[in-house]
Each structure stands twice: as C-alpha cells, then as structure tokens.
Structure prediction request, 308 residues.
Amino acid sequence: MKTKVTVVGAGNVGATVAQGIAIKELADVVLVDIVEGVPQGKSLDMNETAPVIKSDSILSGTNTYDATENSDVVVITAGLPRKPGMSRDDLLWKNEEIVAGVTREVVKRSPNTILVIVSNPLDAMCEVARRVSGFPRERVIGMAGVLDSARMRYFIAAELNVSVENTHAFVLGGHGDTMVPLISYTSVSGIPITQLMDRATLDAIVDRTRNGGAEIVKHLKTGSAYYAPSAGAVQMAEAIVNDQRRILPCAAWLEGEYGMKGLFLGVPCKLGRNGLEKVIEVELTAEERTALEKSAEAVREPMRAVKL
Ligand SMILES: NC(=O)c1ccc[n+]([C@@H]2O[C@H](COP(=O)([O-])OP(=O)(O)OC[C@H]3O[C@@H](n4cnc5c(N)ncnc54)[C@H](O)[C@@H]3O)[C@@H](O)[C@H]2O)c1
Prediction:
C-alpha cells in the first residue's frame, strides 16, 4: 500500500504542503477543507502537474473525512492565519475550535497516525490535538522550529554570501516572540558563527529571525507566510514517512527534558517512522537556559487558556 498523508486545510500552507509532498513523491495526499470545491480544484490542478514534475503521487480533494482513513501522517493546517497587527495568540479561540474538530475527525479514521500540527498559536494547538486525540507524545508534533531555523539560516547565508546548505542553526522555544535562537549551535560548515560575524550583525539576524513571521505579514497584508512554513512541514513528513531519523527542532511535549514537563516547546527532536523518537537534550549557556525558561512561560499562558 502506498503511504498516505492527509493535509487538513487547503489554504496557502496546506495546498503548498500537498504540492511539496507530491514533488518529492513522498506519498499520496488527501487534501481536506471545509470550503466546497477548493480541495477538489487544487488537487486536480496539482495532479495535472504530475507529468511535468514526474511524480506518481496522487492527490484527492474532499470536504469529508472518509478518504483520510489509515493515513500514515496527518498535517493540520486548518484555521485562520494572522492578519496585520494580530498576534498568534489572538487566533487561539477560533483555531482551538477548528483544530479540535479536525483532530476528532482524523483520529476516528486513522487511530495510528502521526499528527503534525501547523495551525497557530502553534504550541497551544499542539496541546488541543494531544488532548483531543489522546495520542502519546510520539504522535503529536508541532512545526515551527524548522521554519524559524530555516529563516535564520537564510539570513546567515545571505549576510556571508555562502550556500544555505553550509549553514546550521537551531531555534528552540515557543513559536512566538520569545523563540530562542541558539548561538552556540549556529555554524557554517562547522565553523562557529561567532568566528564569522561580529556580535552586532548576529544580534540583528537573531532579531530578524524572531520577527520573521511578522515581516512577511507586513508585506502580504492579507495573509501570513506559507512557502517556508510548508517546506518545514514537508521536511517533517519526509523524516517520518522515510524513517530518516533526522534531528529537527520541533514542538514536542516535554516530560522532564530541559527541566520542564507538561507543555509543548520547541526542542531538538529525532523524527522517524514512529514520529517523535527522542527529544535531544543539548547543553545550554546560562543565557540560553534563561531565555528557554522565559519562552516556556510565554507558551504556558495560551496553553492554560485551552478550554477543552
Ligand atoms: N507553525 C507555523 O510556523 C505556521 C506558519 C504559517 C502559518 N501557520 C498557521 O497555519 C494556519 C493556516 O495558514 P494559511 O496561511 O494556510 O491560512 P489559509 O487561510 O490560507 O488556509 C486555512 C484553510 O483552513 C480551512 N479551514 C478552516 N476551518 C476548517 C475546518 N474546520 N476544517 C477544514 N479546513 C478548515 C480554510 O477554509 C482555509 O482554506 C494558520 O493558523 C496559520 O497561522 C503556522
């Protein structure tokens, strides 16, 4: 049987995730949305790219959940995106209802699936999916760190005029203004970043990374970023379905790691066929630890507000 990935939400992020999965031929894709015609039209349009992109992934669009049965991975992108001036937390109330409803539907038909959450506010939506699904932490993972780290890597590569492939960065913590870019693990071809740029330049990159989402919202005015977020979700799905055991920064439910438990927080995770296979604990400087704890506090607030 071919691998099946369901993507819920056929908007900017969801449709681009579906396209990314098809381009990489990772799986067949079921695209679900509440708006009639949109998942059907977008899937057909993407299927018609198949001969050109040389992909045998088959996409199907639907407004119900029957076709999602026995999905290996479900990527949840349903919800409202941020508008200018709106924080991710402003989205909490509306998206809680949406993500809870979607989770109920998908887990009924795919009780063994792995949930990759993208909807914002990310850490709180992971908690909604965890509570509603009753899944163990191995099978509820949030996408944010891959995106935040990719932004930082792009800014570093652009500043140094080097290949993005040579850059390495880890952004941990909550997916919000308190995210924690780890300078001590940022490097270019293994060379510590502090040997390649001065502190002021690095601080500006860290700042731009923290505000990376808002920078795009400001340009777009009517929506939020989706190409880079989708690429992040596709990379996580690929690590899972191809059992890559990649170490990626993801939002994971902590059970004592980093001295914290009972919350989702961005930490280095090993992703493979079983989903979250391990939370990797890295040594942090005192400054990084304090920043991570502060970020955890910021995450706990919307998580406490989850009504379910
Ligand atoms: N985690 C991250 O790093 C990250 C990055 C970008 C966007 N996001 C979040 O992802 C979500 C999607 O963003 P987008 O830009 O694709 O928005 P979008 O508005 O383009 O798409 C959202 C889609 O969800 C659908 N939807 C709404 N309620 C639904 C339901 N009950 N069932 C099925 N589908 C439903 C809508 O019809 C729409 O097509 C937002 O919450 C956004 O904030 C997260």
